């Protein structure tokens, strides 16, 4: 139990520090960050490059590829009947990297800010909202 709580603290601390890095202070550009956890530890973290396959070796020795890409406008139109607003989505593709060429093993949709479990590993997806501070003079 103590190990799991320590892992949660590490992920939260990493998420908070990467929240600042994932929000460009000059442009306000939001960046998708991915944290891959396996065996109660963060194995890898990276900034999304749309549709690139990120190779990761799990503690078990298994080599997987992870590809995250933003949802297209068409994907949001599929759910328009559920209301005007929808969570921001990303496309998640997993690959087996054991052979010479990547083999796609999974495709799903998830929230840009969500936790996605895949048996022996978990993806923590983080895309912060960037707030633009406005400075106004106060006269009194």
- The rough form would be described as globular
First-last Cα distance:
56 Å
The total of helices stands at: 2
| Class per helix and strand makeup | alpha+beta
Flag low-confidence runs: 6-19
Largest β sheet strand count, sense and barrel closure: 4 strands, antiparallel
Rg over C-alpha atoms, rounded to the nearest angstrom: 18 Å
Number of domains: 1
| H/E element order | HEEEEHEEEE
Helix content: 10-25%
Arrangement of strands in the largest sheet: 2-1-8-7
Q: Work out the number of β strands.
A: 8
Mean pLDDT equals 83
Q: Strand content of the residues, in percent?
A: 35-45%
Question: Care to describe what's here?
Answer:
It is built from two helices and eight strands. With 140 residues, it is α+β, with helices and mostly antiparallel strands. The strands form two sheets. Strands 2-1-8-7 form a four-stranded antiparallel sheet, with helices on one face. β5 and β6 form a beta hairpin. About 10% of the residues have low confidence. Keywords: Signal.
Brief digest:
This protein is α+β, with helices and mostly antiparallel strands and 140 residues long. The radius of gyration is 18 Å and the shape is globular. The strands form two sheets. The protein has a four-stranded antiparallel beta sheet, with helices on one face. Strands 3-4-5-6 form a four-stranded antiparallel beta sheet, with no helix packed on it.
Keywords:
140 residues; alpha+beta; four-stranded antiparallel β-sheet; 8 strands; 19% helix; 36% strand; signal
